[in-house]
Design goal:
The chain is of the alpha/beta class and 342 residues long. It is 51% helix and 20% strand. It has two domains: 4-217, Alpha-Beta Complex (Spore Coat Polysaccharide Biosynthesis Protein SpsA, Chain A), CATH 3.90.550; 222-309, no CATH class.
Length: 342
């Protein structure tokens, strides 16, 4: 039986899925199985998956249930002690599984091991910046407000953690175990991480290396902002049932951080009107973002106002310069924390 199960949901991702599978097969750690869950793809995704002949690969086919539902199916079929999640447009660095297995093996109280992530574009080219979350002493308010895991391809999780949050339901004609909430089409990650934090005693802890390559896809943000906010607020309503005190104390700050995140995404896509609207709403929602993270908040405000005021060509030069400085600073931080924690 493999020690690690990699769960890869697949739905209409023929442009990316081959590279995702290859990134798993290229791991320096070999004791894994790859559970591919085809969620009724209508393009050539399934055919591309079936071209691989590695005996560690198993393909599960099901009627469409969405990302959360595909992950649930993969986790049910997984046999490993540790379960790694990989979205089918993201990639693993070659040392990803090796580093997480070492981390979990030496840290028996850690249930959720995650890594930093490097951003890539639609052509798998590095964008020059990273997700740089808190790595140690992570609390439930940290997860609510800042989601240090960052994305669904970053964590490797003990099977026992999933078992402790599982819920048995009959949603599709038979009683099954559910881990992620199948009814969510967005924000399913943060909903699951919060239940893990609230309902179990397992620790969350990060690895400093950027071992996940997280793909940033372009358009559609403006149209999806209201849906993303609505989905996030639905998560908050659900979490209120589990821990009302958490929401009472931290809910407004968490919403401000969410709005600031969306403002930053709008800025990256150069949607100045949306970015201005979102950052103003964030500040009105909870001014504590200025106190708790003054540098990051002020940098976001400054970047958005420069986008709004400068001519497009001039702003392009400013943005390129800022990205270069941020990239060098993040590289230094990655190297420093990796050397200090190892």
């Amino acid at each position: 039986m493999a020690k690690v199960s990699v769960v890869l949901p697949v739905f209409n991702v023929e442009r990316y899925v081959t590279a995702s599978i290859q990134s798993v097969l290229a791991q320096t750690y070999a004791d894994f199985e790859l559970v591919i869950v085809d969620d009724s793809s209508t393009d050539g995704s399934l055919r591309l998956c079936q071209q691989f002949t590695d005996p560690r690969i198993r393909i599960i086919q099901q009627k469409n249930r969405g990302l959360a539902g595909a992950r649930n199916s993969g986790i049910r079929h997984a046999k490993g002690e540790y379960i790694a999640l990989l979205d089918s447009d993201d990639l693993f660095a070659p040392e990803k599984l090796q580093r997480h297995v070492e981390h979990l093996d030496r840290s028996p109280k850690v249930g959720i091991s995650f890594s930093r992530s490097a951003f890539i574009d639609e052509d798998s080219q590095p964008l020059g910046y990273y997700q740089m979350p808190k790595l140690k002493e992570i609390t439930t308010p940290d997860i609510l407000c800042r989601n240090p895991i960052g994305n669904g391809s970053a964590p490797v999780i003990r099977r026992q953690v999933f078992q402790e949050i599982s819920v048995q339901k009959d949603l599709y004609g038979a009683v099954e175990d559910f881990f992620f909430d199948d009814s969510f089409r967005q924000s399913e990650d943060i909903e699951c991480w919060l239940r893990m934090a609230i309902q179990t005693s397992w620790l969350f802890e990060g690895i400093p290396e950027p071992l996940t390559l997280y793909r940033v896809n372009g358009g559609g943000l403006s149209a999806s902002v209201s849906k993303q906010l609505a989905s996030w607020e639905r998560v908050m309503e659900k979490i209120k049932i589990y821990d009302p005190k958490l929401l009472k104390e931290w809910g407004s700050l968490a919403r401000a951080y969410q709005l600031r995140y969306l403002a930053r995404r709008a800025w990256q896509l150069r949607d100045k009107h949306l970015a201005l609207k979102l950052i103003h709403e964030a500040l009105v929602t909870d001014g504590r973002i200025m106190i708790k993270e003054p540098q990051r908040t002020l940098m976001t405000i400054g970047a958005i106002y420069l986008l709004a005021l400068l001519p497009q060509k001039a702003y392009g030069y400013v943005q390129a310069y800022a990205f270069q400085k941020a990239f060098r600073r993040q590289q230094r931080d990655v190297v420093y924390t990796a050397s200090s924690l190892n």
